[in-house]
Design goal:
Layout (H helix, E strand, L loop, with lengths): L11 H4 L3 H19 L9 E13 L4 E5 L2 H17 L9 E3 L6 E5 L8 H20 L5 E4 L14 E2 L25 H13 L5 E4 L28 H5 L4 E4 L2 H5 L4 E6 L3 H11 L3 H7 L5 E2 L2 E2 L6 H7 L25 E2 L24 H9 L4 H10 L21 H7 L3 E2 L1 E4 L10 E4 L8 H20 L8 H11 L4 H4 L1 E5 L64 E5 H6 L8 H9 L6 H19 L5 H10 L12 H13 L1
Parallel strand pairs: 2-6, 12-13
Antiparallel strand pairs: 1-2, 1-4, 1-5, 1-9, 3-4, 7-8, 9-15, 10-11, 14-15, 16-17
Helix pairs in contact: 2-13, 4-14, 9-15, 11-12, 14-18, 14-19
Bound molecules: adenosine-5'-diphosphate and magnesium ion (MG) (5 copies).
């Protein structure tokens, strides 16, 4: 979340009249950036994480844990201490930044300045995360704790789940049966976003997560905690008229999804070409990391039969009309749109030879007029499609004060559409008038309970991103298979029980492939032509993680002989990470191979390997996901009745146990 502009937001009926205005000027703003920065080259690797917290308030007397709605006060306090630290010369760490988030119980934190490619920065990630948590915690009440938990188990139960209590009857923005207005950040942007999604869609959002059916769960499961007969808002009857499904956990508001916490990483690339290359390489990896980071099995007081937040968030901001969703023939709406604004990426965008047209095999509608405009301006076809695809969406929040902008200095209209396309990857153009380069944001991961785990995932992905570029890995599979992997990744215990589509041979040519992966992982990288790559002097190992990797030319036609469907197969997570057969060393081994190209002292190497070891143990199931651990905690709790219900007492004990970690 960037800076929040204070102003007067337009209601949907008014806002929609400016939709074309925002899109047109948004594209102008993008083209101004493109003209100035498309040839920008040589930006170093800078990167950073974002961690979201939920602040919980413990009531030890009642044995209840509630969400604390003090975000505004907490952020004000953190801002003032952050200013104090900034002026304290004995404090050498860069001052972290705290940001507001959708939930009034949420905080987001980022490192005060991005990390560089220095090895010592890799090793500073965990302590920076701990420092941020410590700062946040120190400025809360003694009864409050900042949790990095993906979903709050009892958000939206009947009864008290916030501190202070508010009645859902007051939910004027969402019209939710479960969540009060005060669950949402009071800044005008958030209630407006909530209300305009509902108004644009023409109904409340409707999320149905399959319930985990336990030994004594009544069947069919009719949820008695839904106020079926409430009659306050016009949408109240939706639940009984079919929106709420049997044997499912029904949720009806943006807060259920955007109230989730996640772990995101942003990488600056050498130039636009490398950013697009990296974006594509990370697309097929996104579902795997969602599965490995799975942390959210409990929803609205029930155990779900899924382990991840993804589809909940996706449903919680699904503003598509019935026509767009394909339920009615197109009349008012312009496009049939297969996915929510929050969804897995629908298009690969790199122009490098590896990205064959056959990989972009799903319906990703784009705005033809915007596409033509971009093409006529000289933007290549793939990037034009990407932008014109994002721009099928309407702007949801428009402030009357910022309708008219200077398109040479602002990117606000562009960002309005861009930043409400919440996909697994985000391709971020440089903001105007800033030193920042072309960036890629990796967004699928669930936040982990401990900072050690969050650091491990961050370190793994930054190293993997370098391995992808260093070895010029080809990870493409048809994007329809990535979508299928996304669905599988969320299933209960996906790491251990699902198979995922993955590419069988990730090396760009036979000569770049180690002869026997299992027995001889090379200790120095092999270039396209079989010789070692020289970077920092002759055979010198690199001192730091870097950008600006060479892109070897297209191999001969033999490389493309088969159909793209012969290039991938279903693999277990262990095979994907540890390798399969003689051609594919596995993602973890590729990271180790990349590490071997770096000049890392033994102690640093040992610490990096501790992080990689966590990923390895997660992969092979010897270390459970948070989702699996939480599910087990509930099911073995003495008060659990094997009825799929997470009671106040169980939730309290769970949160105490998590706090103790
Ligand atoms: P958003 O919410 O829009 O995704 P944030 O500002 O919350 O973005 O987080 C951006 C992340 O990118 C932070 O971790 C920050 O440290 C990092 N970052 C900042 N500048 C750069 C840069 N030039 N290149 C890469 N990452 C950066
Ligand atoms: Mg955030
Ligand atoms: Mg952010
Ligand atoms: Mg954000
Ligand atoms: Mg954001
Ligand atoms: Mg982000």
């Amino acid at each position: 979340m960037g800076l929040l502009f204070l102003g007067t937001p337009l209601q949907w009926d008014e806002a929609k009249q400016y939709a074309d205005h925002v899109r047109t000027h948004g594209i102008t703003q993008f083209l101004n950036i493109w003209d100035r920065l498309k040839d920008r080259y040589g930006d170093e690797l800078l990167w950073g994480d974002e961690i979201e917290y939920m602040v919980a308030a413990f009531d030890d007397q009642e044995k209840n844990v509630k969400l604390s709605l003090r975000q505004t006060e907490i952020l004000a306090k953190l801002q003032s201490i952050v200013n104090d630290i900034a002026s304290d010369r004995s404090e050498t760490r860069s001052v972290p930044t705290f940001h507001p988030e959708y939930g009034r119980f949420m905080l987001e934190s980022t490192p005060g300045s991005p990390y560089t490619g220095e090895i010592r920065d890799l090793l500073a990630v965990e302590s920076n995360m701990r420092y941020r948590r410590h700062l946040a915690r120190k400025h809360l009440k003694t009864t409050e704790v900042p949790f990095t938990m993906t979903s709050f188990p009892r958000l939206g139960i009947p009864g008290v789940f916030t501190e202070p209590y508010f009645d859902p009857a007051d939910a004027v923005s969402s019209h939710s049966l479960f969540l009060p207005e005060e669950i949402t950040n009071p800044h005008a942007r958030f209630p407006t976003l909530t209300a305009n999604i509902r108004r644009r869609r023409g109904s409340k959002v409707a999320i149905n997560l399959p319930l985990f059916i336990d030994d004594r769960t009544p069947r069919p499961f009719v949820d008695r905690t839904i106020p079926w007969q409430r009659n306050i808002y016009p949408e109240d009857p939706e639940a009984k008229n079919g929106a709420a499904l049997l044997d499912h956990i029904y949720m009806d508001a943006m807060g259920f999804g955007m109230g989730c916490s996640c772990l995101q990483l942003t990488f600056q690339a050498c130039n636009i070409t490398e950013a697009r290359r990296l974006y594509d390489a990370l697309v097929p990896v996104a579902p795997l990391l969602l599965a490995l980071s799975a942390a959210s099995p409990l929803w609205r007081g029930y155990i779900a039969d899924v382990d991840c937040r993804w589809d909940v968030v996706s449903g919680s901001v699904d503003d598509r009309t019935e026509e767009e969703r394909g339920l009615k023939p197109l009349k008012e709406s312009r496009f049939k749109i297969p996915k929510s604004r929050y969804a897995s990426v629908s298009l690969y965008i790199s122009e490098y030879w590896m990205n064959q047209p056959a990989y972009n095999d799903i319906d990703a509608p784009h705005d033809p007029a915007i596409f033509e405009r971009l093409r006529n301006h000289g933007v290549d076809e793939l990037l034009s499609r990407h932008i014109a695809h994002l721009f099928i969406r309407d702007p949801l929040v428009i402030f009357s004060e910022t309708i008219h902008q200077d398109d040479t200095t602002s990117n606000d209209h562009f960002e309005n559409i861009q930043s409400t396309n919440w996909q697994t990857l985000r391709f971020k153009p440089p903001p105007p008038n800033s030193p920042i380069g072309w960036r890629v944001e990796f967004r699928p991961m669930e936040v982990q309970i401990t900072d050690f785990e969050n650091a491990a995932f961050a370190v793994f992905i930054v190293l993997l991103s370098r391995a992808m570029l260093h070895f010029n890995l080809n990870l493409y599979i048809p994007i329809s298979k990535v979508d299928e992997n996304m669905a599988r990744a969320q299933r209960r215990d996906a790491v251990r029980s699902e198979k995922f589509f993955f590419r069988k041979d990730v090396f760009p040519s036979a000569s770049s492939r180690p002869s026997s992966v299992a027995s001889s992982i090379p200790s120095s990288p092999i270039s396209e032509h079989g010789g070692p790559i020289h970077v920092n002097g002759i055979n010198g190992k690199e001192k730091k993680l870097r950008n600006c990797f060479p892109l070897p030319p297209r191999p001969d036609d033999a490389y493309f002989a088969g159909s793209v469907h012969e290039e991938y197969e279903e693999m277990t997570m262990v095979e994907i990470m540890n390798g399969k057969g003689t051609t594919f060393p596995g993602l973890l081994n590729l990271v180790y191979m990349y590490l071997d190209t770096l000049d890392v002292d033994d102690e640093s190497r040992r610490r990096i390997e501790e992080y990689l070891d966590l990923i390895r143990r997660r992969t092979n199931g010897s270390l459970r996901t948070a989702a699996s651990w939480i599910r087990e905690f509930v099911r073995t709790h003495p008060a659990y009745k094997f009825d799929s219900v997470v009671s106040q007492e169980i939730n309290y004990d769970l949160m105490v146990a998590i706090d103790e970690m």
